[in-house]
Amino acid sequence: MTAQPKPVVIRKYANRRLYDTGTSAYITLDDLCARVKLGEDFIVLDAKTGQDLTRQVLTQIIFEQEAKGAQILPTSFLRSVIRFYDDKMQTVLQHYLEASMKSFMSNRERMSGMVGKAMDKAAVEGGFSPFNPLEEMTRQNVALFEKTIQMFNPFGAMFGEKEEEAPPAQQQKKRAKR
User: Fold this and answer.
1) Which of 22, 28, 39, 59 is the most exposed place for a label (fewest CB within 10 A)?
2) 3-state DSSP call for residue 29?
C-alpha cells in the first residue's frame, strides 16, 4: 500500500499573493483552480499566522468561476445553503453534501455515458427526456439524505414512519387516537 503524498503547502501573504512552497514560485487562483481539476491536493496557510485558509480560497475560486460565467450553482441552491448557517442541521447538511458529491463523482462517468445515450435517443425519437437518469439520481440522493437524518435521530424510524408504510393494523390504531 502506497502512502498518500502530503498536500503541497501554499502560503497566502497579506498582499493576497499565493506562494507555492513545492515549486518555490508565486501562483494565481487560476493555477489553483487547474490543480483542483487535476485532483492535486494542497492546503493554503496564512503566511504570517499559519491559519488554514484552504476553505476560504476554494470558496474564492468558486466565486470567481461563477463570476466568469461558469454558473453551476443555482441561485435557489445558494439561498438554501445560506439558510443552513447557524442552523442545528448545519452538520447534517455538510455530511449530506459531501456524500452526495462523492456519489456524484463516482457515478460521473456512468452518468456521462447515460446522458450522451439519452441525448442521442431524444434526437432520434423526440419527446424522450434526457434528464430521467438525473431524476433517478436525485431520488437516490433524497434517500441518502433521509438515511443521514435517521443516523442523527435514533428515534427517527419510530416517529418518522409514514402512515402508508405502517401495517394496516397500526394505521387503524393511529386513526383511532386522532
Assistant:
1) 39
2) helix
Residue 10 burial (C-beta neighbours within 10 Å; 0-12, 13-18, 19+): buried
Residue 60 is assigned to a structural domain of this protein: yes
Give me 70's grid cell: 461558469
Residue 42's Cβ-count burial label (10 Å; 0-12, 13-18, 19+) is buried
CB distance 43 to 5 below 8 Å? no
Q: Are 43 and 106 within one domain?
A: no
Look at the chain and report how many structural domains it folds into: 2
The boundaries of the domain holding residue 32 are: 8-67
Are 11 and 21 spatial neighbours (Cβ–Cβ below 8 Å)? Answer: yes
pTM equals 0.62
Do 142 and 79 belong to one domain? yes
Residue 175 resides in a domain: no
Helix 90-106 to helix 75-84 angle (10° resolution) is 140
Q: What is the pLDDT of residues 2-34, one digit of tens each?
A: 677 889 999 999 988 999 999 999 999 999 999
For the chain, how long is the longest CA-to-CA vector? Answer: 74
Distance CA 142, CA 127 (A): 27
